[in-house]
């Protein structure tokens, strides 16, 4: 069996939270972005 490294840090939770926050901000900014595009066009 493989030995467990006591110094190993599982950062998948941090990555998931970061991606979640980015998606949340992007979805919140989407209507404003569409408005800017319509104004520019």
Count of strand segments: 0
Q: How is the biggest beta sheet arranged?
A: none
- The H/E string reads H
Share of residues in helices:
over 70%
Query: Measured on Cα atoms, how large is the radius of gyration?
Result: 19 Å
Report, as a whole number of angstroms, the end-to-end distance: 62 Å
Low-pLDDT residue intervals, each spanning 5 or more residues: none
Mean pLDDT: 88
Secondary structural class = mainly alpha
Q: Number of DSSP helices?
A: 1
Into which percentage range does the β-strand content fall?
under 5%
Shape: rod-shaped
List keywords for this structure.
mainly alpha, about 40 residues, about 0% strand, rod-shaped, 1 helix
How would you describe this structure to a colleague?
- With 41 residues, this protein is mainly alpha-helical.
- It contains one helix and no strands.
- The protein is rod-shaped and about 60 Å long.
Provide a brief overview of the structure:
It is built from 1 helix and no strands. The chain has 41 residues and is mostly helical. Keywords: Membrane, Transmembrane, Transmembrane helix.
Write the layout of secondary structure elements.
Elements: H1 12-40
Keywords: Membrane, Transmembrane, Transmembrane helix
Transmembrane segments: 12-37
């Amino acid at each position: 069996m493989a030995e467990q490294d006591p110094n190993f840090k599982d950062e998948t939770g941090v990555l998931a939270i970061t991606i979640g926050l980015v998606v949340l901000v992007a979805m919140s900014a989407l209507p404003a972005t569409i408005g800017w595009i319509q104004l520019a066009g």
